[in-house]
Write a structure and sequence with these properties.
mainly alpha; Helix Hairpins; 4 helices
Amino acid sequence: MAIGTKELAPAELDTFEDQRLVEELRKAKEELFNLRFQSATGQLESHGRIRTVKRDIARLYTVIRERELGIRATPAPVEAPAKKASKAKAKKAEEAEAPKEEAE
């Protein structure tokens, strides 16, 4: 079983866009900095969290690099359901108008 944040599981990272991956990397680095600072001042309660955050950072770097090399696919943009519904309505309207134009 992989140690790490449940939100940053490899299967979950495949669904993230490139900008979100960079943002998650920034957050993880910031958290690691804060954890190291807490450790140095003796305020850190969970030392295992440092290891977990380091692995998350490595996982993020791996996914980003694999996408650069073309090993891992970048997710296709997902349309909002409202846009799909409006496109479906527009297509139905075009189909409804097409037979009328042919009949004339």
